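Field notebook, page 272. I keep forgetting to write these up properly, so this time I am using the form the group agreed on. The chain and the ligand, iron/sulfur cluster, are recorded exactly as supplied. Prediction of the bound pose follows.
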Amino acid sequence: MKKYAMPVIMLAVFETVAIALWLTKDNLFYLFNFSYIGISVSLGVFLFIKKYRHARRVVQLLVGLYMLVYLGLICNENMQIEGFWYYLFTGVFEAATIHYAVAKIFGPLIFGRGWCGYACWTAMVLDFLPYKVPKQPRKRLGWIRYITFAAALIFVAALFLAHAGNLERIMFRAFIIGNILYYVTGIILAFAFRDNRAFCKYICPITVFLKPMSYYSLFRVKCDKEKCISCGKCRRVCPMNVDMTDNSRKRENGTECILCMECVKNCPKGAL
Ligand code: SF4
Ligand code: SF4
Ligand code: SF4
């Protein structure tokens, strides 16, 4: 039974958040929302333990489609970074601000960039592309993320400074246009750099939050040096160019790990 502790813990964490928000915000939606995500994530971890090959993809589709289609398109919630700034500026602690606090700012202290591996609706599509393992060396283009981060902030700040009317409608349109831009840019970059996750590595503004917080992540892939035979297979299958054989927090691309577990699955010695 011990091996099933992880999905149970994951479910317990999400249910705690769900119940706490339901009671403090007096809104049943939070109970439904975080319970759904918790059940999806726990199911994925359970399937992984059962060695189901597509466990991560199941979670990615369950959570990613829910957030994109239900929350984004049906409920008109802008859950992108512009939505986060928008709700923050209006002083409303709900929707995108809660989402960012849980999944992208404080959550990564526990589960690192699990969001990127299991829930992001942009990566949900990019992961269908053919370059699951990068076919070219990593580029020094990470600085672009700071430009996209600043652009999102300036865009929302400008709306407030200009006293733009019908902000809800503008934010919904920004959500649609922003997603289309992300998908088009992500797909072009994936083929140009022969790397499905090129968008994540160089463009995505959310990594400005995710990277520093995931540096301190509780959940990390670690290497048992006694078992490791230095065959290098783990590094060859990593989509994010992480040196998971180095156990220090300063390891190469350590804040890029999306906890996809490809290295763990492929290690011939069970050292990870
Ligand atoms: S880096 Fe950005 S686009 Fe990539 S998975 Fe994470 S949040 Fe999604
Ligand atoms: S795949 Fe396993 S044995 Fe090979 S280098 Fe990586 S951790 Fe070591
Ligand atoms: S292959 Fe391993 S180190 Fe690389 S992103 Fe996946 S879990 Fe992290």
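OBSERVATIONS:
- The mean pLDDT is 93.
- The chain has 14 helices and no strands.
FOLLOW-UP: compare against the apo run.
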